[in-house]
Write a structure and sequence with these properties.
heterodimer, A: about 280 residues, two-stranded antiparallel ribbon, 11 helices, about 75% helix, globular, B: about 170 residues, mainly alpha, about 70% helix
Amino acid sequence: MTPLDFVVSLALVSVAAGVLGSLIGLGGGVIIVPALTLLYGVDIRLAIGASIVSVIATSSGAAAAYVREKMTNLRAGMFLEIATTTGAVSGAYLTTVLPARFLYVLFGLVLGYSSIATFRKRHADQPLLVSNDRIANYFDLHGSYYDTAERKEITYKVVGTKPGLVLMYVAGLVSALLGIGSGALKVPAMDSAMHLPMKVSTATSNFMIGVTAAASAGVYFIRGQIDPIIAAPVAAGVLLGATFGARVLGKITSRTVRMIFVVVLVAISLEMLQKGVFP
Amino acid sequence: MTSERTDATAGQEPAEGAGERIEVQATSRRRQLTPEQAAAMEEKIRKVEIAISLVLRIGVSVSVIVVATGLGIMFAHHSHYTSITGGYSYSHLTSRSTVFPHSFSQLGTGLASGEGRAVVVLGVLLLILTPILRVAVGVLSFLYEEDIPMAIVTTYVLAVLIGSFFLAGA
């Protein structure tokens, strides 16, 4: 395969990853990292560097669409970024000491866990009307959004900010370690622990993953993990796909979103575990 | 801003049209507003949000154009990259030993000599800047809303983002 074939085929894979990524609140990194390592045989550390760039592309591209639709809870997102960015900086440093096989196994476990968490909670869609969470009330993290599927304005309250912050620190750590947006961890943290509606969680996660990724992207750039010939088709392809995916999200019901999420996660989780355990 | 003021005005009847917003604010610690002020604030917030999404779009579009230009230059300079089939494998460019700019000074040198890969890296850095810019705008808009707790939160996030480059030894 010549460099031209590589760039063109990788761009196509990236478009697909972008569509799926924005649809389920991930950065597309969960598809890009396995694609680069399993299909193209790229070193996992370079794959992670390229992927973190694609996460930013997805987030910035999709966020432009979501903010105008008021689906994103900017206050809650920004508040939780305290934990994710701190986690991301710690994680970017940890990668130097961890062996590649550990990264594969961690990748598999993280995705396996998120698919279970998402599957179990797939019917809990009722928003909360009151909150006695003092942190959430102090920072006023509650919100409302217009649900296009149900055709009405839905007001919701936020609880569980402390478990939310802890989970978000872990999400930031994992994001930096694996080059993924870790929307796989952020979405369950918001909709299960903090009771944000699924669509709000997905849109807010999409906003957050870009900021989290930016915190580790600087470290990866300086360390020479962002290879331009890999990053270029990945960033452009994922961005294109994500822009399209963001347009579709409002029109699909929460249950469909969750089921796509679960199936994709289980498949990739098994693949990565296999690569880490039996290399 | 204070809780006494929140209690004093919490009983106010919200005006037609802006009801949703007022109700949310009555239970919050955000500055209490008359319905007219609330409507004006709502309008300003909407404008800020539109401005943010415009900034994001421009930032993302510019970076993709720069990345694509860089790729074009790269292929133009190395004719053996562009054949559909052939002996030159992509793996020469994706191995651990591949050389590409990964510091600001190398990037400057690469750009000065018109290297395609340096242009791609510049585009990638512009892309990395978009969320950082977004957080910076967030700091300003929370200050503008006189929401000090959220302004502090956002400033911390911005400091971590900028600090990460320097912590890595840029």
